[in-house]
């Protein structure tokens, strides 16, 4: 085999391994997305019939996190990836952490939603509706973030980051409403608190999703945009947008 | 130069660069530790005289996070570190993220503590005392975690992870007390909520500190102990302890 053939062979095998690793991460992302949408739908449809199945998913996500880190590490050890591929591996390692934490928050959100349903005194419908709307928005953000990761699409990643503004506004409004609820219904403070924790978990999931979008931009453009405000990002990446 | 001399030279330079990177991460850890202790001391000593100085620290931490990631990446690109050093680089990348998030939570805690002091209606002294005790415990955890990282000491890392039990108990007790406060003092629900958010930030900081301790164990022993309970860890690493 000639040297160029050999190196082509090695690099295509590396590409194959990197692709397969990205595929596993996206599969994990899909599981976490299911955890999130199951949590959000508890408020409208009641606790899932197969809670055991969901718990199994959480364990599966934890196992995947560890095994994806290990595989990324092995790839780093065996190959000496060039800058672009290295960025992708770093992004995989960081996204892996954020996805696992989204899974944790989704689990917390599910527990809070279930606890709310069990309360004798039901949370007034408009609060439930507001939480559900926030949940739906966060589900959209996460679907968009995973899609941006799958396609390495900076423009889509920016769109998801832009969605965080609405999330922050809606979350702040929800907190204000629930504070009023705590004042007016002190006997149901536990209900108010469960609702606040549920909203908080959803807000955190939006945050982690934005982290993932920042890694997408980093892989695609080589620019580290953490701690950069949205306007500056848009000036850089979206002049014609 | 003979080949062994050359490789010795290269490896000692790599060691030097890796040490310098660990040093920078520990320096960042020191800054974050100062942010945390400043936040905790607000409850007893009032808002810091130089709030601008603290905000400057936060920006410095953000810049350090980005530059440490970049340096770790450059080191990965230029060298082909063996398994142990590679584990250290991965641990640096992951610890970097957790430290920055601890800084964020410390900032939130400081804002909540300052808001509590501004309230006309002061939080009853025993709640303040309980929050302060949790803050002191978390400061100890963080000092221990950074020390374990600096010395690569699995035993000390396990000790810090063990401290999380008390944190979780005290935090759960605080939440219960504050829920009662919300019920009894509905007019001061904002005060109750600020206190809950403050406690929550401290609890999150304890969580991130335990993550760092898990990376220490990973570097030192090669074992990934995430999602492993404390008893199992102790069986493995601390048989004679």
Q: Which keywords apply here?
A:
homodimer; 241 residues
What does this structure look like?
2 copies of one chain form a homodimer. Chain A has 241 residues and is mostly helical. Chain A has one domain: Up-down Bundle (Methane Monooxygenase Hydroxylase, Chain G, domain 1). Helix content of chain A is 85%, strand content 0%. Chain A is built from 7 helices and no strands. Chain A has helices spanning 3-45, 51-78, 83-118, 125-151, 154-184, 189-221, 230-237. In chain A, helix 1 (3-45) runs antiparallel to helix 4 and helix 4 runs antiparallel to helix 5. The longest helix of chain A has 43 residues, at 3-45. Chain A is globular. In chain A, 43% of the residues are buried. The A-B interface holds A 62-63, 65-66, 69-70, 73, 76-77, 80, 82-83, 86-87, 90, 93-94, 97, 175, 179, 182-184, 186-187, 189-190, 192-193, 196, 224, 226-227 and B 62-63, 65-66, 69-70, 73, 76-77, 80, 82-83, 86-87, 90, 93-94, 97, 175, 179, 182-184, 186-187, 189-190, 192-193, 196, 224, 226-227.
The oligomerization state is homodimer
What do the pLDDT scores of chain A average to? 90
Query: How many DSSP helices of chain A?
Result: 7
Which value, in Å, is the CA radius of gyration of chain A? Answer: 21 Å
Number of strands of chain A: 0
Hey, which two chains have the biggest interface?
A-B, 33 and 33 residues
What is the name of the CATH architecture of chain A? Up-down Bundle
Fourth-level CATH superfamily of chain A: Phosphate transport system protein phou homolog 2, domain 2
Report the uncertain regions of chain A.
Answer: none
Global shape of chain A: globular
Which H/E pattern describes the elements of chain A?
Answer: HHHHHHH
The main pleated sheet of chain A reads as: none
CATH class category name of chain A: Mainly Alpha
According to CATH, what is the topology of chain A?
Methane Monooxygenase Hydroxylase, Chain G, domain 1
Number of domains of chain A: 1
Please bin the fraction of helical residues of chain A.
over 70%
Strand content of chain A: under 5%
Broad structural category of chain A: mainly alpha
Report how far apart the termini of chain A are. Answer: 48 Å
């Amino acid at each position: 085999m000639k040297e160029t053939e050999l190196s082509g062979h090695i690099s295509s095998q590396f590409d194959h391994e990197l692709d397969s690793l990205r595929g596993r991460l996206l599969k994990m992302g899909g599981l976490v997305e299911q955890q999130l949408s199951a949590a959000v739908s508890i408020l409208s449809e009641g606790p899932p019939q197969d809670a055991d199945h969901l718990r199994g998913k959480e364990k599966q996500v934890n196992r995947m996190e560890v095994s994806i880190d290990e595989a990324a590490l092995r790839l780093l050890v065996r190959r000496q990836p060039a800058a672009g591929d290295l960025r992708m591996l770093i992004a995989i390692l960081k996204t892996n952490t954020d996805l696992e934490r989204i899974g944790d928050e989704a689990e917390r959100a599910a527990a809070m939603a279930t606890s709310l349903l069990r309360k004798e005194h039901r949370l007034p419908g408009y609060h439930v509706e507001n939480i559900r709307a926030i949940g739906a928005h966060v589900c959209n953000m996460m679907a968009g973030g995973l899609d941006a990761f799958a396609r390495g699409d900076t423009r889509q990643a920016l769109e998801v980051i832009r969605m965080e503004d609405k999330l922050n506004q809606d979350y702040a409004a929800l907190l204000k409403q629930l504070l009023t609820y705590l004042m007016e219904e002190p006997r149901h403070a536990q209900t108010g608190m469960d609702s606040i924790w549920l909203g908080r978990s959803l807000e955190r999931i939006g945050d982690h999703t934005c982290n993932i979008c920042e890694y997408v931009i980093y892989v695609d453009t080589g620019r580290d945009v953490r701690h950069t405000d949205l306007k500056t990002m848009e000036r850089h990446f979206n002049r014609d947008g």
